[in-house]
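Q: I have two molecules that I believe assemble together. Could you output structure tokens for the complex as a whole instead of separate predictions?
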Amino acid sequence: MQDTLFRTLGRASAAVMNRAALTRHLTAKLADEAVVGGIGNTHFDLWAAGQRAHNFYMLGSMGLAIPIALGVAIAQPKRRVIALEGDGSLLMQLGALGTVASVRPANLAIFVWDNGAYQITGSQATLTASTVDLVAMARGAGIARSTWAEDETHFDALVGEALTGSGPMFVGARTDNAPPAGVTERDPSRIRIRFMDAIKT
Amino acid sequence: MIQEAVAAADTWDAAVVRILKANKVSLVTYVPDKVLAPLIRRLHADEYFTVINPAREEEAVGIVSGAYLAGVRGIVLMQTSGFATLPNVLASLALPFQIPLLMMVSERGTLGDHQLGQAIVCSTLRPILEALRIEHFAIERREDLEFVADRMIQQAFATQAPAAMILSPLLTNRAGAPA
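A: Yes, here they are, computed for all two components at once.
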């Protein structure tokens, strides 16, 4: 199973998909999993996919979706935790990949939307638009279960693995530049309290 | 409660371990510092603590913040130059979300430091804390450590606010600890 799910294809071979659609594919399969949505269009689409209390929406602190999700995963090892992050954000905090690999949380899955652009600030190019392959970096950091999502069918299978498999995993998904499907309500106290109540043990 | 008369007999780093346990602070993230090294060694050796050393202080803040949201208390250890990398995440994560982020900052760049860069960074520490209105206090005397750290930790959680405990060289280096 693992051999076919975690594939060696490079970024150029991965299909370009739609972030809002993939986010809906993901959230449709969730129950009580915690999701940390990185800033900007990443969490806008998470919000638009349905306002789960188990979602935490970041309002700043660019690059910290993975560290925050790692903290949740460490604190609640029995709960599945998913980090959603964008390519520009991850590029700001690449060391986080090594931290995840060394901590090796069994319950953390990372999904990165890679559109090669800082879409929300005017679609200036990120480094992934030229030379950087984030999946290769995740693998190099020590997250062995890393792969590009080849197409939507593969993406759906990877979501299934995120909910049942063991060990940290990293999925890169190439996305288009369609605008987000909504805009998150941004009251930090409400976001925090709702999330804390939802995942309280 | 901590017995201060007994506690004053041991080293500052042993006392910090005891204070963290008394306050159920079990997750420690840090970016290294020579002054903090004896404390870091103790934390790694103690099964009570989950200790993580990420690549940057911002990451360390993210991990502790996430753990707080999920019900576990943590603290970030760093030196002055590491703190200087944090204003953006303090202003956009810890403060607006009212996360009681505990920080312990070893104060470098003062009282005999030989590096100009450290000294200049040190001059930003208090202005940043004051601009962000983050509770902070420099601990200079061993006999103050239990009272100050214990109270600051309790206040942080009671008021849902970050707190910075600054470890002065007067505390960590007066008796000839590594500079």
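A: One point stands out. The domain at 4-172 of chain B is CATH 3.40.50.970 (Rossmann fold).
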